[in-house]
Amino acid sequence: MGRFRIKAVFGTKFISIAAFLTVISIIAFAVSYRSNFRKRALETLSKMDSDTGFTLSEMENIAGKMLPKSKEPINGKNPNISPFIQGDMDGDGVNEIAAVYKNKKSSKNGVNIFKYADGKWKTVFELEGLGDFDLAGFYDLTGEGCSELLIGTVFSENGNDGKNKGGTSTGGDEVSRRLDILGWNGDAVVSVAQVDYHNIYVEDMPGGYGKDGIYELAIGHGDGSFEICRLWSFGQLIPAEEEAWAHFFAKELSRLEKSSDGEKKVEDLYLLAEARYYAGKYGECIRTITEALEIAKEDRELQNRFLVLKAKAHMKEGEFAETEDILRELISSQREAGIKNEFLADCLLTLGRCLGEAERFEEALEAFKNCFDLYEQLYESDYFKKLARQAIVRDAAGKLKTERAAKILEDSINGKGNLSAENIANEIKAWGNANGLATNVILPEKSDADVTVMLVEMQTAILDNSSVGTVKGFAILEYGNGKAAIEPVYAGINENYAGRVLGFRIAKAPGDALEAAILLDDESISGIKCPVFRLFRKEEGKWTKIWASPKNSWRNSDGSITFIGEGISEFVIKSSSFCYMDSRTGIFLESNTGPRRWFLDTWIRQGDEYVIKTADTVPSAYNTLVEFIYSISVGDNKTAAGCVAEKELVSKATRLGLAQKPPGQEWGIENDGNDMTGPLTVVVKSEKTPLQRRIEFSFVNRDGRYLISAIIPLSQ
Fold first, then answer.
1. In sequence order, what E strands does 583-649 have?
2. How far apart are CA 259 and CA 256, in angstroms?
3. What's the whole-model pTM score?
């Protein structure tokens, strides 16, 4: 569509030529999946719920006409699954419809997906040969404003189903359960990911900033363990934030503790131990594991899983020696047996984190490097899985290096005596140059603090290997009475920002607690700013993340943020339609130098979060033109009539063939900087004729709105 978006890979920047070329080689995949990470506008999100949803009878009627008679819509054995479900997969504001069925001829189950385009319904995807339906629903797994379709099925030896209660699969004599994740890639529905499971929950679980509209997957395995995952780019599942794990296991803990009084199965004990771990009951977790290890004497693989969890619990208790002893014994036994697998990688990763907590910096980095290299070997032929796994290691190593650099820098400044803000900035830059660390210092544009507060950017090679990349960390520096305190506010694997600082403001919350509002460029679109907002508060001597700008209601393409007043209670985002996806996207081909629509969204503070107060589109000739062409293209003559000074211009535009079929033909605009007031010349492209037509639109301003006053065909 004449533009593309590239997400930063887990907050890292690739700096070697080889790594750069590798990233370029996967851009085609990244661009196709999610249609360039498309977003949907606020008005489309609200319209989605009210205007474009279909009733069950409407879906039944549509699917009935589309499905062959041999395909019978079914619920499966799960009464929670309707034969017909709906969701907007491509962000055009109109729901797609999925029908789950049984083929009466082959006795196979399947799913068909229907899309409305070019004035009619058509089949855009079909998947047959599935098991008995265990889960079927549309969920937004990425926060990009579009929904993925999740289909979970049970494959059993004799055709029986596993039962489903409350979203979890249990029991049955199944051979396996499989989850298929289907998404829109810009042109078609594709298989995004597949994962085997024993139990599964789908829920928007609260992360570091609460619920964000993005659904996590709790994937249960046969040994009783669970993984809480998010869908990352390139169709890979990555660990969700630790708060999501804690949320899931908190709901399970009371039930598990009650059931543990009866017969003690080792699988149940593992789940209980894991629940206690994520609930912060580390001592109880260790005691549960000690009990379970007595039962699991004959199962070495399960024993190993218990031991890793026990090592993690010891680490949380600050018992680093116990953690290290367990992990080194496990690593040694695996290596002696010549085993290289995910379990060994997990041991190395946990060991690195333990050594980092114990401030054994070089040994920690060595463990991370070994883990990184192991993933290189394990997934040499599966680049995207390797990229996702190594990103976890990069995240851990980058966080450690950021924290280490902040501590060394703090000690360096504290040995210099009383310094001015300018001298502190110079010291930091000089220290960075001497230690091969790119640094930058940002003073707040506004500060209510009683001491000097700065934001420090630090960029360094993650594992002292340029092919691995670099990491950018941030730290808040406070300086008063000749003493500095520096605390990293590093962006981790689920944050995905590594851009420059666009704004920084310090304010006092009720009770005189300090808050830091940090605006960053998430660098998701090449060449333009896309600001994101992070709010931190200093509580009990530590800076804590309070709020982050959401993904699915945050318009920031080519944007800027301006605070209203002296504090941080209200701000306005001005953004454009360039690289922003909604139902009007693609009416005209936009560039970063040509006409575009402009939006003004006002966000206001409510407690510890911000909510949208107003969402407006700036009146302009170009905006009116986009709305007009879109309206006549979808047959909305009432809205079209509101865009013109004289109603007969609507019928004239139709006669001139200005209705796009379908909307999104990306016509050209000849513009001499008149996109606010006009006139504007449209270059009409058509597959029916190689000749291009040029149509001039003139405008008149009435009560602050620009209305089309004339439509004049020009020479070809």
1. 598-606, 609-617
2. 5
3. 0.78
